[in-house]
Design brief:
Chain lengths: 208, 77
Amino acid sequence: MPERTNAEWLADLRGPENQQAITDLRVVLIRGLSYSLSTRLRGDIDTLVEDFAQEALLKILNNLDTFRGESKLTTWAQKIAVRVAYSELRRKRWQDISIQDLYPEDSGIDYTPAVLTDPGANPEMSVTQRNILEMVLRLIQEKLTEKQRQAMIIVMSGGLPLEEAARQMGTNRNALYKLIHDARKRLKEEIEAEGLSADDLLAAFGSI
Amino acid sequence: MELKLDVLKKMVRSIATTAPHEIGCDECFNEIDRFVELELQGKKPAEAMPLVQAHLDRCMNCREEYEALLDAIKACQ
Ligand SMILES: [Zn+2]
């Protein structure tokens, strides 16, 4: 395969006779995906990889105008192929686990772990740690919106990857990340308003 | 519904380390090809692009794709 500069790739992919460039790019995508997926999936992955590469190629050709030239074109193209492949694999892997199973929609639920209500449990937990956990639980219940609370609990419990949780909630992964970031910021402010700093929290729970 | 104790502890840490400005998955995606190339050139991308590094430390989906992209590019070098 000829080495191309970014300008040459763009010219070749946009040109009237772009078949060779497309073929060359497909080879790159297939080689990259085959390698990165071979360590994660078992069995024959050739068909899967070809499908991902084909879908990615269409995306790449439709989005050439958004390439900013800050990396090699092939790196940018591989990034798109990886996103296509991993999004699809996540959807297949997690689609049967529903948010409703992980998070029964019912406001006013008590999230308090039994170990916090039972004074005999977890004797090694300090009073400070117990107080912080109770405060955070209370603030999660009082200060977050239902949506923030649901998102934070589902994603941080590890029940569903961010992307699949977003899909099931009818949003996207970027928006869900931002929703949870807002929730974390709100909780941090509320905790500080109650007189504890981030350092206090880390001092109590830093080495989990 | 009860939150597991370790999840609650994880939340506390995550709240404590929250920055006022964090980039989301879209911005991370925009920057990740350059980040990966710096890494492969042995330059320190975490220093040049700390917001991307912070996102990768927090977002398991973006981290997974970043590692896959590193692998994919190594396979083609
Ligand atoms: Zn992300």
